[in-house]
């Protein structure tokens, strides 16, 4: 058969990284990204981009660890290169703090991040309301620069990007051999996934260049994540809330909570409020599917439902999605060979 044509639906961090992995793994493929929105108007642009995993109850821990490890390894290499600044990737050290010690004092990702250890008594004095903490160094993606860097690499690999709203996957079957669904929260409507639901996140992006260390409440409800140019303050986790409008009361609550951890933030300037809808489900949907209509088959790969963990897992799940695309191509080539016999 001719060079397989692959359409990736969605242009957030999952869609872009999946398209890149596909073209890196199968250079003969023709890959097109279709999305109603590109950066800076995606959910990924709102994300803090910290590599601290969110646990998926429905996904085996060893699989989650593999996805995280692959992501961390790839991004660590970028952070160690001359492209780190343009890609918006840097190492950041800090603390995860708890009012009571967690059940698991060693999370599954503790040996992937750098220098993971319990906080000392002296360090805990900074947080008098908290009795236990973990110190470590991880990676942070400044999201808009990282998405633009991915787009630049995609264009260099000949991948086309088209602004298009896809309402029905079958509208693509005459132009593409394989469809990869990276639609995020859009998959709720696109494939009718009732297990997918929004978790609304409101964050503040502020100018506070003196803040160098991240601080994160153990349950992830309050966090301070310093980026290259701005500090992200959060947050909220509001299940089934579809509103993209900033709430002024929430803004004040986030700011007050973060100032209780880091009082110097009272001097932060240039406060910008952002809202995004995390595409959440019990487990990431990462699987092959063959859709059938009449006698026609449509080869599909799904890669969505990362919730709060998109940046932490994106390279790992993209590599697995690319492998599944390879299975789709092999199936097409097999049927093409049989048709000739």
TrEMBL record:
<feature type="binding site">
    <location>
        <begin position="43"/>
        <end position="44"/>
    </location>
    <ligand>
        <name>FAD</name>
    </ligand>
</feature>
<dbReference type="GO" id="GO:0005782">
    <property type="term" value="C:peroxisomal matrix"/>
</dbReference>
<keyword id="KW-0274">FAD</keyword>
<keyword id="KW-0560">Oxidoreductase</keyword>
<feature type="domain" description="FAD dependent oxidoreductase">
    <location>
        <begin position="5"/>
        <end position="324"/>
    </location>
</feature>
<dbReference type="GO" id="GO:0006533">
    <property type="term" value="P:L-aspartate catabolic process"/>
</dbReference>
<dbReference type="GO" id="GO:0019478">
    <property type="term" value="P:D-amino acid catabolic process"/>
</dbReference>
<feature type="binding site">
    <location>
        <position position="223"/>
    </location>
    <ligand>
        <name>D-dopa</name>
    </ligand>
</feature>
<dbReference type="InterPro" id="IPR006181">
    <property type="entry name" value="D-amino_acid_oxidase_CS"/>
</dbReference>
<feature type="binding site">
    <location>
        <position position="166"/>
    </location>
    <ligand>
        <name>FAD</name>
    </ligand>
</feature>
<dbReference type="GO" id="GO:0071949">
    <property type="term" value="F:FAD binding"/>
</dbReference>
<comment type="similarity">
    <text>Belongs to the DAMOX/DASOX family.</text>
</comment>
<protein>
    <recommendedName>
        <fullName>D-aspartate oxidase</fullName>
        <ecNumber>1.4.3.1</ecNumber>
    </recommendedName>
</protein>
<dbReference type="GO" id="GO:0008445">
    <property type="term" value="F:D-aspartate oxidase activity"/>
</dbReference>
<dbReference type="InterPro" id="IPR006076">
    <property type="entry name" value="FAD-dep_OxRdtase"/>
</dbReference>
<keyword id="KW-0963">Cytoplasm</keyword>
<feature type="binding site">
    <location>
        <position position="278"/>
    </location>
    <ligand>
        <name>D-dopa</name>
    </ligand>
</feature>
<keyword id="KW-0285">Flavoprotein</keyword>
<comment type="function">
    <text>Selectively catalyzes the oxidative deamination of acidic amino acids. Suppresses the level of D-aspartate in the brain, an amino acid that can act as an agonist for glutamate receptors. Protects the organism from the toxicity of D-amino acids. May also function in the intestine.</text>
</comment>
<keyword id="KW-0576">Peroxisome</keyword>
<dbReference type="GO" id="GO:0005829">
    <property type="term" value="C:cytosol"/>
</dbReference>
<dbReference type="Pfam" id="PF01266">
    <property type="entry name" value="DAO"/>
</dbReference>
<dbReference type="InterPro" id="IPR023209">
    <property type="entry name" value="DAO"/>
</dbReference>
